[in-house]
Amino acid sequence: MLKKRVAVLVSGGGTNLQAILDAEKSGLIKSAKTVLVISNVADAYALKRAEKHGVKTAVVLKKECGGQGPFEAKIAKILEAENIDLIVLAGFMSILSESFTKRFEGKIINIHPSLIPSFCGKGFYGLRVHEAALNYGVKVTGATVHFVNEIPDGGEIIMQKAVDVLPGDTPETLQRRVMEQAEWLILPRAIEYICSGEYQKT
Ligand code: GAR
To answer: What is the pLDDT of residue 1?
Structure first.
């Protein structure tokens, strides 16, 4: 079977990208191959990870494009030129407009570091999510992989995994545990689940 062509959109360290690349290497992901990594941050370490694996990279900066519309148009053009089947947002810290999400309807997924619908939506990203969870005092948090639509973190949920909050946790220790025990496991699994055709979006 022909492997699905995956593009991963990143902004930072790229540990989730690394988990995907490792899963492709180990055979956990059988039905897909990451062929493109796009970053909206010029010096994102994720780009180095991609280069190390021989994956093509592109940097698209909103400032250089002159606004959200042309920024998204440029990303869309690159994705379409590469015949991408699945777009994975892995720590991509820019909210995509409805025109973009409609253009790629059912083809974009995102990893979010909480159990949606808690601690999600506009303003909840990265460490802020874990700060909010600790401030609220929840004893269980986790991560969610979901389809992306026009509502931030509002699309259909594909997979979730719970993680304990422990006494003495800081946003940093909690972030690390959520990555290790949830994100790096469910993101590769969700990609295989979708690309193998086993998961059908409703
Ligand atoms: C991850 O924890 C991811 O879930 C989160 O940013 C981090 C990126 O880390 N994404 C969001 O908060 C999106 N709302 P990484 O660059 O090492 O994969």
So the answer is: 81
